[in-house]
Design brief:
Helices cover about 45% and strands about 15% of the residues. By secondary structure, the chain is of the alpha/beta class. It folds into two domains: about 190 residues, Rossmann fold (3-Layer(aba) Sandwich), CATH 3.40.50; about 100 residues, DNA polymerase, domain 1 (Orthogonal Bundle), CATH 1.10.150.170. It has a seven-stranded mixed β-sheet, with helices on both faces. β1, α2 and β2 form a beta-alpha-beta unit. The longest helix is centred in the last third of the chain and has 15 residues. It is globular and about 60 Å long. The chain starts with 8 loop residues before the first helix and ends with a strand.
Length: about 300
């Protein structure tokens, strides 16, 4: 049984504008909260393709619903392969797509994944256990320059150089193995004031390492254009992001696809032929209510953006 609480559940389902008979993709199944609500609305005449790169998520949801309905297709894959996922199943277009980019509580609480710096666990962080790269390999094999780069870019960590240097020095003594050990190394690399700030001092480093392991940002950049291209006219794409790097990608790709002519202003008429593909439904992102954050603190950084295919 999943312990995960889906973030912005009511808001995202409402934003998809679903109806009986729709073909829908939940591109990030996770704990299955969104998928369960989608199935209620589209009913037996609709179809739901639920995708996740985490085989545990697929297996858990399959067991939880017990008798799998005929209109549910479960797929173990990464949403960056969106067109192939659908094309391989004879689906050319869909009415709605949802992607919740957050990690489920089931994954965060699993010490074998090592996603939390608050308890000891393996330095893994893979969503897809069939991939080779782990955080243990990164911290023990990447050069100081490579470590500093990913901490700066993916973690926006201002003490990236100091942390990278401490990691290199620590692994000279012995390989770095666990999450608490890594957190201690990070703590020793940052100023004392930073260790007692509002945000835990290891947060940005763990975020950066997780993004690197799972190729999160590049997969998101691949996914969004494919999802937009596959939508039927009037179909909607809803994406829930959890940090500024993800949200920036969603916002920018939505804007690019919502633009018409991109010719220079001085051109007397349009020569580019560029046509807008979508209209943006959420001019400002939808964020969780105070009540939802109170019930589920992990929802506090969530942002929902929605677009509609023209």
């Amino acid at each position: 049984m999943s312990i995960h609480k889906s973030v912005l559940l009511e808001e995202s389902i409402k934003a998809l504008n679903l109806k009986n008979g729709d073909v829908v993709v939940d591109a990030t199944l996770g704990g299955g909260g969104h998928s369960r609500e989608i199935l209620k609305i589209i009913r037996k005449t609709g179809k739901l393709i639920a995708v996740d790169q985490d085989r545990n998520a697929i297996n858990s949801f399959s067991k939880e619903i017990k008798s799998k309905p005929d209109n549910l297709v479960l797929v173990k894959d990464n949403f960056s392969n969106f067109k192939n996922i659908l094309g391989g199943r004879g689906i050319k277009s869909v009415d709605a797509v949802l992607a919740d980019l957050g990690f489920s509580s089931d994954q965060i609480e699993d010490s074998e994944r090592g996603l939390s710096f608050l308890k000891d666990g393996s330095l893994d962080m893979r969503l897809d256990k069939e991939k080779d790269l782990t955080v243990e390999k990164i911290v023990n094999q990447y050069s100081q320059e490579e470590l500093e780069r990913i901490l700066k870019i993916y973690g926006e960590e201002k003490f990236a150089r100091s942390i990278a240097k401490k990691v290199i020095n620590a692994r000279k003594e012995a390989p770095i193995k666990g999450t608490l050990e890594l957190a201690r190394i990070i703590g020793n690399a940052v100023p004392k004031k930073y260790r007692h700030g509002r945000i835990h001092f290891a947060t940005k480093t763990f975020q950066a390492l997780r993004i690197e392991v799972n190729r999160e940002l590049e997969n998101l950049e691949k996914f969004i254009p494919q999802a937009i291209a596959t939508l039927n006219s009037g179909g909607r794409l809803a994406i829930i992001s959890f940090h500024s790097l993800e949200d920036r990608i969603v916002k920018n790709i939505f804007r690019e696809n919502a633009r018409g002519c991109i010719c220079p202003k001085e051109f007397p008429k349009c020569l580019c032929g560029h046509k807008e593909k979508i209209r943006i439904i959420t001019r400002k992102p939808v964020v969780p209510s105070f009540l939802e954050i109170e019930k589920n603190p992990r929802a506090r950084s969530a942002k929902l953006r929605v677009c509609e295919k023209i």
